[in-house]
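Exercise 7 asks you to align residues with tokens for two separate proteins.
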Amino acid sequence: MTLFDMLIGCAIMFGVTYICKAVGLLFVKKQIRNTFIQSFLYYLPYSVLAVMVFPSILFSTSFIWSGIAGTVVALILSLFRKGLLIVSLSSILTVFLVETCLTFFV
């Protein structure tokens, strides 16, 4: 992934977030009481970010298995409500160890 690709991704994320907030400010004069629409507008930027980041997680390593292992470790630790630093460092360590093992055995 090049710097240009990352900047395009950031611009798309900014646009989606801005549009969600701007639509609410410009077109809706009253408070939105529908819980479905409230949750949709709240979670939309996070889902777009996840969709943009997930393929890079898998394909940025030498082996797809190390990306999968790092993702699994991150998901398990986040389900147990561990902090961001612990989750990220553990998944980085997992990717490193799996890459090292696969390099030696493959």
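Second protein for Exercise 7:
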Amino acid sequence: MRYSIIGGDLRFARLRDILTADGHSVRSFALGAEKDEKTLADALGGADCVILPLPMLGKNGTLNAPLYEKSIALEELKPYISDKILVFGGSVMTETPFPVTDYFRREELTVKNAALTAEGAVRILMSEMEIALTDSKIVIAGAGRIGKLLAVKLRALGAEVTVTARKEGDLALIRELGCDWCRTENLRLCAREADALVNTVPARIIDASVLRSMKKEAILLDLASSPFGHDPDEAAALGVRSMFAPGLPGRAAPRSAAMAIRDTIYNIVNERECSG
């Protein structure tokens, strides 16, 4: 199969190499590398499958291409996209000028992405905290995929872990994982003894009352997507050391993240061939 990869971060540079090693013909553009084609037309010409970034668009509404010095509007791809070409994009949140299959809606990828995010968070905590995980008390805000997987990894490394949730089912699962639990509305109370507070909820649940309750030496690690879980200016004003860690899979384990995207796209293509 002939693949074209347009835009993306280091994950997609690795994806290009992986697909090539699998025996496919691969062209790329806007990956900031010598292997890129000179023009968008060259990169898309003859493609059977086009792979766009995760997330597909950046903050300005153009293609997410942090390794490229210029911007690319989706409309620029339209002249080269025929009905026969499969186009994949990650976390597609807007209407597109041509059909795009959102590979980030696939469970196998979201689970793997959560696992890589959790592993990256562990690395950050180990490097930023002044105490060992085995001596630490860590509060995780949110019991989604990332929160649960992170809790398991931290527990395995000897940390004392508390996870917050709102749903009774999530609270029950937290208990079965061997972690302490706290209702999200009581986050201020359980954050008081934490050496680190890790947020996974994309909503402003960490307000001034929570920040004031935290220990002086504690850190706040925000893994959530926009609008994030806290205001960094507010945290700084209250003396809390906070940090954001978006896109952890691409930074902590780009090759593993690329393999997960590849496997997901292969699954979608195989399913279409079988159903066709």
